Amino acid sequence: MNIAYKLIKFADKILNVIVYLCLIIVFLFCLYALFDTIKVYLRASNNSIMSLKPNEEDPIESLENLKKINEDVCGWITIDDTNIDYPIVIGENNAEYLNKDVYGNYAISGSIYLDYRNARDFSDIYSVVFGHHMDGGAMFGDIRKFADKSFFDTHTTGTLYTENGVYKLKVFALVHTDAYNKYVYGINKNDFSRKDELINFLRENAINYKELNINLEERVVGLSTCSSATTNGREILYVKIEN
């Protein structure tokens, strides 16, 4: 009886040790996850790159400084009164900068990048720029705010810095679709008929839309990010480049 009691007590101690070890492991994992999350958002909102943001007085020289860091830098986009304020890169394909920052380092938040099929100087009549949806508004996380009609109506401007100069942006549509939408992602450079189809699609399907009477020669940019509303869902904010 004494031996059995000792064995039960010993087993109880072993069980307690295992439980404590499990709790410690869970705690350490949670601590690591928290640290990793903080690191992701620090990368996504890296303030060091902001010191290199182009200025309107000499944007070409400013972008040249950025290109010394990474020759893939092709512009900078800002949507006023949002957290969208980032350099734009262009890779050899659309996967290159999914998890790589503007410095070329691994980053879950990735970079804001132009579709590799587009002209890097934004001379195409239709361009698409991609960015991850990050909570807290980092990267293209603030695009979701434009689903609110009052926000959409009062946040209408932005700026695009390119290798050729500075252009004002005018917000005119927000659409929710999927990653296979032929109008949104079937980029065909300067095909005017496809551009006309895109504008008609936006008029009929946009969550919010503002009629700017865009002609076929005017340049349009779609800012695309992921949406959790549907599988492979995408939210795209559309802006017109003011010449």
Feature tags:
243 residues; alpha+beta; Sortase, Chain: A; eight-stranded mixed barrel; 25% strand
Topology overview:
Blueprint: H1 2-44, H2 59-69, E1 73-79, E2 85-90, E3 112-114, E4 126-130, H3 149-154, E5 157-162, E6 165-178, H4 182-185, H5 192-205, E7 208-209, E8 220-227, E9 233-242
Parallel strand pairs: 2-3, 4-8
Antiparallel strand pairs: 1-2, 1-5, 3-4, 5-6, 6-7, 6-9, 8-9
In short:
The protein is built from five helices and nine strands.
Overall description:
This protein has 243 residues and is an alpha+beta fold. The protein has a single domain (48-242), classed as Sortase (Sortase, Chain: A, Beta Barrel). The chain is 32% helix and 25% strand. The chain is built from 5 helices and 9 strands, in the order ααββββαββααβββ. The protein has helices at residues 2-44, 59-69, 149-154, 182-185, 192-205, and strands spanning 73-79, 85-90, 112-114, 126-130, 157-162, 165-178, 208-209, 220-227, 233-242. It has an 8-stranded mixed beta barrel. It is globular and about 95 Å long. The N and C termini lie far apart (93 Å). 33% of the residues are buried. Residues 27-45 have low confidence and may be disordered.
